């Protein structure tokens, strides 16, 4: 029910995120227009919020008038009665008390719009991160991405609030004060107008410095976030080799850079704020002298001096507020640039309009496949031709860099060949909606990734419907029963972050159970046992035998003894296939495979 309510409030996360992605593409050149486009569908909330802003701000406009009235009555009792003072008192009291409900209403409608943008931006970023190609994720540090999703969205949210909580009231105060002053004295109102070019001049002088300082500081924060993320991942290695001081020094170097950039940013903002304050204090004193002179000449009453001073103070406070929030706005605009780096990225996996698969047999054909990375003339794969029958087990072997894992990435669809074709059931993978294809595929990598949760959660990850009997059967097939029976909470045992409470073999068997429960037609095993001890490898091998039954299987292995039962072994060297055959055939031929096997003896 809560989820339904949230979707109603935010218009559905998927549609909302798509709207924000489109806005980023449409308004690529203008962060302010991009920000405005984020509020589409929420202009009614902003308008109502603005109305309540006008009402709640009434005491600010009325108080100088009431003050002037009371002073004029008190200084000229012959023409006024005491009743006038009480009337003015009651009026200002009512106007002040109404601020409580109207302020709450103002914030309520404003918050609906701002929180909508905050949720939508994060949703759009998360969706985009899921769409980016694997190459993009390899190039973008995780810490930098986290900084964009958390810090940059927060900066945009704060900028939005500043627009509505500080900027909008300031603009309204300036307009209302000017209108009231103009209605009373056009000469004084002309003096007020002089504040506008002065404020523009101050912003113009400091704009570039503030923007440059914000950009440098933002990049240093992203760099720090990335390095802290790496540091946390590396703690076991750091501790094991006694490199704590080295790692601390590396992080301290980054922190010193942030300290320097932050100091320069603070200094620029300090000069900006001080220049602004001094300039407008001088203006306020000049206003007081000017209106006092008019009162001395008898052109205005004494109380009007206080009223004009009050309105001019209001205008100066508003202009000062506008100028003081400029650094916050500059930070938000810089964060918009940062967010749009992700939202406008075209390096995505595009499945739009491609063929969706409901069933697969698992037959593959590599036809003259070539692969080279952008900007490199070196071919990672060259003229790879191979036919794989449905249900066949194919093992790839070869030295590091031979192209084995690259072939697996082609099968998964993480990479697209730059030459030739990869056909699955006679269909070019480039023409298939890879999301529908991957529902029939399971991957067990060398270093398996578990999330913080129970063993059951990790096995059934992503499944909506499953029976307890099915889970137990899969646990048994994955050779996990004995291990789970020894745990006090069984399948409901928490595995810790990244499965840190489990051994490598236990994590691999959970990964195999995760694959088995989906009953895939295609299995990818990438060095699934290379990091395990002999006992763990024995248990994982037994689980793998269950996993690959009647399924098309692609295996990459360095331990050649583990692929003895593969239907065929493909030997790769420098991106080429040099040998294909069974274990016994390749050993008998005494070729490349035989040489590799001899090196492991």
Number of strands: 10
Which class of the largest domain in CATH terms? Mainly Alpha
Q: From the helix content, strand content and strand pairing, which structural class follows?
A: alpha/beta
- Which runs of at least 5 residues are low in confidence (pLDDT < 50)? 1-13
Largest sheet entry: 6 strands, mixed
Proportion of residues in β-strands: 5-15%
Radius of gyration: 35 Å
Q: The CATH topology of the largest domain is what?
A: ABC transporter transmembrane region fold
The 3D shape can be described as elongated
> Average pLDDT value?
78
Order of strands in the sheet with most strands: 6-7-8-3-9-10
GO molecular function, one term: ATP hydrolysis activity
Main location: membrane
Domain ABC transmembrane type-1: 47-331
Domain ABC transporter: 364-599
Describe this structure in a few short sentences:
The chain has 601 residues and is α/β, with parallel strands linked by helices. The protein has 23 helices and ten strands.
Descriptive notes:
This is ATP-binding cassette subfamily B protein. InterPro entries: AAA+_ATPase (IPR003593), ABC1_TM_dom (IPR011527), ABC1_TM_sf (IPR036640), ABC_transporter-like_ATP-bd (IPR003439), ABC_transporter-like_CS (IPR017871), P-loop_NTPase (IPR027417), Type_1_exporter (IPR039421). Residues 207-234 form a coiled coil. It is found in: Cell membrane. The chain has helices at residues 2-10, 13-26, 31-38, 43-56, 58-75, 83-97, 99-131, 134-139, 142-184, 186-193, 195-240, 244-296, 302-324, 326-343, 404-412, 434-438, 455-459, 468-477, 481-485, 504-516, 534-547, 583-589, 592-599, and strands spanning 364-372, 379-388, 393-397, 419-424, 427-428, 441-444, 522-526, 552-556, 568-573, 576-581. By secondary structure, the chain is an alpha/beta fold. It has 2 domains: 7-343, Up-down Bundle (ABC transporter transmembrane region fold), CATH 1.20.1560.10; 364-599, P-loop containing nucleotide triphosphate hydrolases (Rossmann fold, 3-Layer(aba) Sandwich). Helix 4 (43-56) crosses helix 9 and helix 22 crosses helix 23. Residues 1-13 have low confidence and may be disordered.
């Amino acid at each position: 029910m809560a989820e339904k309510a949230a979707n109603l409030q935010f218009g559905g996360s998927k549609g909302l995120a798509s709207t924000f992605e489109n806005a980023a593409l449409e308004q690529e050149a203008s962060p302010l227009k991009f920000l405005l486009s984020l509020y589409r569908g929420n202009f009614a909330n902003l308008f109502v919020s603005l109305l309540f802003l006008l009402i709640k701000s009434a005491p600010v406009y009325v108080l100088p008038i009431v003050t002037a009235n009371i002073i004029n009555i008190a200084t000229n009792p012959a023409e006024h009665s005491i009743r006038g003072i009480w009337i003015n008192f009651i009026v200002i009291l009512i106007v002040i008390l109404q601020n409580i409900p109207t302020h709450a209403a103002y914030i309520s409608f404003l918050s609906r719009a701002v929180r909508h943008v905050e949720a939508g931006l994060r949703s759009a970023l998360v969706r985009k991160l899921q769409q980016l190609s694997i190459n993009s994720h390899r190039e973008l540090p995780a810490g930098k991405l986290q900084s964009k999703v958390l810090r940059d969205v927060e900066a945009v949210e704060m900028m939005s609030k500043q627009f509505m909580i500080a900027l909008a009231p300031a603009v309204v105060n300036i307009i209302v004060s000017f209108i009231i002053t103009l209605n009373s004295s056009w000469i004084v109102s002309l003096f007020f107008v002089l504040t506008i070019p002065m404020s523009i001049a101050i912003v113009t002088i400091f704009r570039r410095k503030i923007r440059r300082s914000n950009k440098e500081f933002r990049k240093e924060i992203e760099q720090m976030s990335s390095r802290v993320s790496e540091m946390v991942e590396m703690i076991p290695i750091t501790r094991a080799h006694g490199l704590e001081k080295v790692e601390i020094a590396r992080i301290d170097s980054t922190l010193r850079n942030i300290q320097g950039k932050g100091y320069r940013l603070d200094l620029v903002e300090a000069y900006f704020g001080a220049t602004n304050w001094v300039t407008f204090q001088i203006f306020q004193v000049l206003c007081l002298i000017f209106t006092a002179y008019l009162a001395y000449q008898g052109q205005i009453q004494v109380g009007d001096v206080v009223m004009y001073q009050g309105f001019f103070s209001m205008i100066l406070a508003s202009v000062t507020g506008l100028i003081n929030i400029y650094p916050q706005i500059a930070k938000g605009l810089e964060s918009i640039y940062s967010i749009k780096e992700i939202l406008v990225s075209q390096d995505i996996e595009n499945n739009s309009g491609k063929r969706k698969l409901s069933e697969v047999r698992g037959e593959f054909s590599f036809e003259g496949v070539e692969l080279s990375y952008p900007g490199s003339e070196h071919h990672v794969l060259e003229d790879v031709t191979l036919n794989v029958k449905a249900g066949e087990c194919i093992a790839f072997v070869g030295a590091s860099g031979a192209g084995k894992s690259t072939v697996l990435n082609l099968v998964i669809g993480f990479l697209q060949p730059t030459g030739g074709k990869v056909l699955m059931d006679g269909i070019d993978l480039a023409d298939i909606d890879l999301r529908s294809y991957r529902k029939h595929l399971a991957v067990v990598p060398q270093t398996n990734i578990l999330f913080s949760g129970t063993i059951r959660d990790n096995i059934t990850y992503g499944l909506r419907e499953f029976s307890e009997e099915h889970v137990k059967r899969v646990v048994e097939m994955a050779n996990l029963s004995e291990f789970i029976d020894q745990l006090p909470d069984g399948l409901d045992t928490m595995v810790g972050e990244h499965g840190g409470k489990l051994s490598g073999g236990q994590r691999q068997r959970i990964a195999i159970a995760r694959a088995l429960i989906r009953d895939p037609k295609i299995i990818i095993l990438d060095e699934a046992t290379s990091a395990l001890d002999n006992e763990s490898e024995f248990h994982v091998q037994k689980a793998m035998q269950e996993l690959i039954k009647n399924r098309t299987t692609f295996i990459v292995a360095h331990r050649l003894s583990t692929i003895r039962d593969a239907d065929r072994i493909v030997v790769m060297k420098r991106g080429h296939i040099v040998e294909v055959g069974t274990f016994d055939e390749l050993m008998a031929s005494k070729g490349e495979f035989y040489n590799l096997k001899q090196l492991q003896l």
